[in-house]
C-alpha cells in the first residue's frame, strides 16, 4: 500500500516510517528535510509545504492513507507560526487528501487539545482547550481538530490520535526531544536535583506509532483516541533513566510550589534567552497532573503500551549506540 507521512523527518515520523516499511508499505515521506535515521528502502522523499494546497495535492496524489504529523510544538503563550501550522496546516493537508481521493486520514494531535485543568481523570469526554488564557499549543491543537472536523463533514474518512508525553528511541533530532533530553541528562548523571512529586503520563514513541497504525485500520471516522503510557512523577522518570545507565538519579526533589512562586522572576529571564522551558505553560501540565484514561484506545483499537522500564532501557541503549549519551 502507498502511504504518506507528513512531518516525516521528525521524531515520531522517523519511527513511523520504519514501522510502515517493515509492514511492507511504500512511503511518501513529506518534509522539507530528510531524517538521518529513517529507513531508506521503499521511501520517496517529497519536499512540500503543508500550507500550500497545490503542493500538498501533488504530494498526496496516488496515496491511500495519510498520517499527518506536522506540528509546531511550543511552550509559549502566543506564537503566530505555531498557530498557523497547527490549524491552517491541518485544514490544507486534509482538504488536499479529500481532493485527491485519499481513502484514510489519521491526524496526530495531542493530549494538550484537552483542557488538563478541568479534569483530574482525562478521557475523550474531557472539555477542550478553548480558553484564551491557556498556552497557544493547547489551543491550536484543538483548533486544528476543529478544522479537520469540517473536512470530515465534507466526506473525508479521518480519525484523530492524542498522545501524551512522547519519549524513547529512536531520536535522531538535533537537539533531542525535550523529554529525551531530560532522560539523557539523567542517564549521564548530570541531574542531582529535580522537581519533586509532580508527574505526567508518558508514552513510548513506538507505542504512539502502533496506535497510529491501529487507528488507520480500526479507528472510527471523526473519533479521538487518547494514546497514553504510564503516569509517573517526573523525578521517578529521571531516576529510571539514570538507573538504566547504571547511575543514580536525582537525590533531592524540589517542591513544585516553590518553582511556581518563582515563575514571575524566572519567566522573563528565560524569555531574554529566547527559551520557553521555564514558563507558566511548561509547569501547567505538572500542576494539573492528570491521569489519562486510554481505555477507549485499548477497547476499540487493541492498543497496548509497554512499560516505562523497557522504554528507559531501550532509550539508553540507543543513546549509547548513537554516541549521544555524553553529548
Structural class: alpha/beta
Q: Helix-strand pattern, N to C?
A: EHEEHEHEEHEEHEEHEEHEHHEHH
CATH topology of the domain at 2-167 and 202-228 and 294-305: Rossmann fold
CATH architecture of the domain at 2-167 and 202-228 and 294-305: 3-Layer(aba) Sandwich
Fraction in helix: 40-55%
CATH C-level name of the domain at 2-167 and 202-228 and 294-305: Alpha Beta
Which percent band covers the strand fraction? 15-25%
Query: Using DSSP, what is the number of strands?
Result: 14
Mean pLDDT equals 91
Brief overview, please?
It is built from eleven helices and 14 strands.
Q: What's the arrangement of secondary structure elements?
A:
Elements lengths: L1 E5 L4 H12 L3 E5 L12 E4 L6 H8 L4 E4 L11 H20 L4 E5 L12 E2 L13 H18 L4 E6 L1 E3 L10 H10 L5 E3 L3 E6 H14 L5 E4 L2 E4 H11 L7 E3 L1 H17 L7 H9 L2 E2 L2 H7 L6 H14 L6
Parallel strand pairs: 1-2, 1-4, 2-3, 4-5, 5-7, 6-14, 7-11, 8-10, 9-13
Antiparallel strand pairs: 10-12
Structural descriptors:
single chain, Rossmann fold, globular, alpha/beta, 7-stranded parallel β-sheet
Task: Give an overview in words.
The structure is a single chain. 43% of the residues lie in helices and 17% in strands. It is α/β, with parallel strands linked by helices. The protein has a domain at 2-167 and 202-228 and 294-305: NAD(P)-binding Rossmann-like Domain (Rossmann fold), CATH 3.40.50.720. A seven-stranded parallel sheet has the order 3-2-1-4-5-7-11, sandwiched between helices. Strands 8-10-12 form a three-stranded mixed sheet. Helix 3 packs parallel to helix 4 (136-153), helix 5 (178-187) crosses helix 11 (308-321) and helix 7 crosses helix 11. The mean pLDDT is 91.
